[in-house]
Amino acid sequence: MQTEARPGIGSKYYRFLEDLGSPAFLLEPDTEQVVGANRQGLALLNRDFEQVSRMTWADFFSGGDDGRPALELAEAEETRVFYCDIAKRTDKSVPAKVEVSNATLGSRQLFLVRITDITERRQAEEALRESESLFSCLATHCLDGLCIHEDGKVLLANQAYCDIFGFSPTEMIGISSYAFIAPESRDDVYKKVSSAYDKAYEALCIKRDGTTFVAEIHGTKAQYRGREVRISVLRDITGQKKARDSARLHTLQMNRAQEEERKRIARDLHDGTIQSLASLILDLELAIRKEASSPELSHSLQHACDDARHIIQEVRSYCHELRPDVLDKLDLTAAVEALCSDLNRKGIRTFFDVSGTTRELQPDAELMIFRIVQEATRNIWRHSHAAQATVSVFFASKTVRLIVEDNGVGFPTPRTSGDQPLEGKLGLVGMKERAKSVGGTLIVRSASGKGTRIIFEADL
Ligand SMILES: Nc1ncnc2c1ncn2[C@@H]1O[C@H](COP(=O)(O)OP(=O)(O)OP(=O)(O)O)[C@@H](O)[C@H]1O
Ligand SMILES: [Mg+2]
Predict the structure, then answer these.
(1) First-last CA distance in the chain
(2) pLDDT at res. 64
(3) DSSP string over 224-292
(4) For labelling alongside 146, which of 40, 65, 103, 245 has CA 20 to 30 A away?
């Protein structure tokens, strides 16, 4: 209410200034003296009206006369706008937007000065500048290709992106983003971009010289300078892919060699050891018949004969473990069912479930699934103390999913399987390697007291 009490500051000025709703002052054109101020104006300068009314135009600015915009400019018709630092009563100053215009109040011609504190805007601009320079520094030094696309065209690309494709940064601008994608991958990439797919995917890309390479692309929608854009990070993974493929092939070959070796041992045991034991039994039976006169001796011979039969049984079961005939004679589901029956016989209620449209798989793939179930059911028997287990196989049109689960004691799954081979535990690691060798995934879910679930899935 101070303004109303001041001589020269009529109540109409006060009402007029207050109604503006933001810091405002009235200045006398001749003396450049403040003759009116509203409460927001006083608060902005951190002064009371007494102090403000002693101020002239020059006192508003913290930079002295040099920083003082010429007030005369406002004598023109339109509003003048300045950006400068306004002095507060304390030594502080605030960055401000100053608008000066003419105001006719009653019979008096005055200058109306409106001031907006733009500290927050400055800070935001500063933060934006900093983040942009950080971004451009990261983009420059980033080894992956970075590109900003707008409306399907390149808006900005970093050096790595340009180097990958063989264009200079300026040549890049405006090129259609799909020009870098080889025709065979275009539909897929287009679908991913249109559905705002935000995970990494692989695509065949094409360079300026027409050569193609496999890239891993990760794109996301973003706002850039207030515009909706898509940012993509691109990496040439040709080398990585080759290494991955050759590691896969290596495992596949190792598995094949291992299977061949198992087959050979099983055959040797069958054709050699079992036949020798069989002829030993025959000899023993002959001896029993000849030595009927000595009950003690024939009892011992009978005992040896039973032992030999028992050994044959054991060797046969080793042969079966090494190379189950069921795999050669029957299909995969029958072989897996046989493993489930084994577990059932050992006292663990085991269910077997096949769904989808069953089909014959490549021999390698069938053997691999069989070996995974074999190891998983063996682990259930050895470690789980489960009462119940389930093996399910689901055939989809392209993929096969296998789940082996039990309701046993479970175990804390290690984050990495690196130490297990050192501890002589090869089962889980082997399963994962087998799954990888056909481009599939194998996940082990388990926790103490919560049972174990093994999920394998692959395009087969
Ligand atoms: N179904 C399960 N229930 C409870 N614990 C399990 C189960 N499967 C695996 N484990 C735990 O995980 C460990 C690693 O299993 P893995 O099959 O790799 O090795 P292993 O069975 O001990 O030895 P290997 O299979 O080489 O003969 C096991 O020692 C056991 O502690
Ligand atoms: Mg095991």
Answers:
(1) 85
(2) 52
(3) ETTEEEEEEEEEE-HHHHHHHHHHHHHHHHHHHHHHHHHHHHHHHIIIIIIHHHHHHHHHHHHHHHHTT
(4) 245
Ligand approaching nearest to the C-alpha of 454: 1
Q: What's the pLDDT at 423? A: 61
CATH of domain 11-117: 3.30.450.20
Annotated domain spans of the chain: 11-117, 124-236, 240-323, 325-460
Nearest CA to ligand 1 atom 19: 425
Q: Please tell me the predicted confidence (pLDDT) of residue 129.
A: 85
What integer pLDDT is reported at residue 8 of this predicted model? 41
Pick the atom of ligand 1 nearest to 454's CA: 1
Question: What residues contact residue 218 under an 8 Å CB cut-off, 6+ apart?
Answer: 198, 199, 200, 201, 232, 233, 234
Same fold, 11-117 and 124-236: yes
pLDDT along the chain (460 residues), means of 10: 44 80 90 90 89 87 61 66 81 86 86 91 85 80 92 92 93 93 95 90 95 95 89 93 86 84 84 88 87 81 92 88 68 88 95 92 86 94 96 94 97 68 73 86 93 95
Ligand 1 centre to CA of 383 (Å) is 6
Give the span between the Cα atoms of 189 and 195, in whole angstroms: 10
- DSSP line for 49-79: HHHHTT-BGGGGBTTTGGG---GGGGGSSSP
- The pLDDT score that the predictor gives to residue 405 is 97
C-alpha 388 – ligand 2 centre gap (Å): 18
User: For ligand 1, which residues put their CB under 6 angstroms from it?
Assistant: 379-380, 382-384, 406, 408-411, 420, 425-428, 452
Q: Which ligand gives the minimal distance to the CA of 407?
A: 1
Going by alpha carbons, the residue nearest to atom 3 of ligand 1 is: 384
Instruction: Please state which CATH number belongs to domain 325-460.
Output: 3.30.565.10
Residue written as tokens 């259609």? 176
**Given this model, what pLDDT does residue 203 score?**
95
**C-alpha 428 to ligand 2 mean position (Å):** 6
pLDDT of residue 403: 97
Topology of the domain comprising 124-236: Beta-Lactamase (3.30.450)
Q: Probe ligand 1: pick from 348, 406, 411, max atoms within 8 Å of CB? A: 411
Cα 420 to ligand 1 centre (Å)? 9
Nearest ligand, CA of residue 419? Answer: 1
Ligand 2 centre distance from Cα of residue 381 (Å)? 10
Give the number of whichever ligand sits closest to the CA of residue 431: 1
